[in-house]
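Hi R.,

Here's the input for the pyridoxine-5'-phosphate complex you asked about:
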Amino acid sequence: MLLGVNIDHIATLREARKINDPNPLDAVSICKLAGADQITIHLREDRRHIHDIDAKAIIKQSALPVNLECSINEDIIDIVCSLKPYRVTLVPENRDEVTTEGGLDLENHFDKINKTIEKLKENDIEVSLFIDPSHKAIELSNMLETDFVELHTGTYANIYAMLYSNLRNTQHSIKELELSKEELKSMLDKSLEDIKASSNFASNLGIKVAAGHGLNYQNVKNICEIKDIIELNIGQSIIARSVFTGLKSAIKEMKSLINE
Ligand code: PXP
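And here is the predicted structure with pyridoxine-5'-phosphate in place:
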């Protein structure tokens, strides 16, 4: 199983202070040394984390292939074609969302997505579509002749968190998932079944299958057991964990510095 590490959240931390630290480019060689197979970044229309200058520097200097997520906005696609990342993953984008909330609406944006894919391919960029795990979405992806699909695992991850973590007792409880354990269990089984069936369908059609969104140290096991999925893109949980795995040495370093 290949791992793409999404480093947007390093830029999010930088944007909290609007300074030049931490620089997401600095994470690239650490990701490589740690065994990551790919760097994933999202150049959003609102530039809330990754900026054009980050995307340019990362694409120019990364030893790992760069998977750039973006919307089908024409200005963004022009920029992306000039940057020439290894792969582009087209995602839906909505200004008010905290993070990408679901897969692309392929049915209603078929022609525009088709044109975007053509343009990316003319620029020799591999194309992936971020889609919900459904039969229909795979059929449409196949018609669009995409190289890859990335199955949205956010629904699975949300159900998993409401069932097996303390999320429902916190201020971030997901209201529409405040259901009995029995109901959540059958929803979790169904969401896993959808992911399995969609990956199998896509893989049989010759489409490479990735998955991502909301995957973490608890919920990833079920997903990596699905044999048709060859790659996972994971961001928030890895960056969140690195805060704690690195906190002790960061404090020790500062303590020794101020006591020198
Ligand atoms: N894949 C896609 C297409 C995404 O939009 C994101 C979030 O930017 C991820 C993977 C990573 O999600 P997470 O940060 O929840 O691991």
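One thing worth noting: Residues 181-204 form the longest helix (24 residues).

Cheers,
M.
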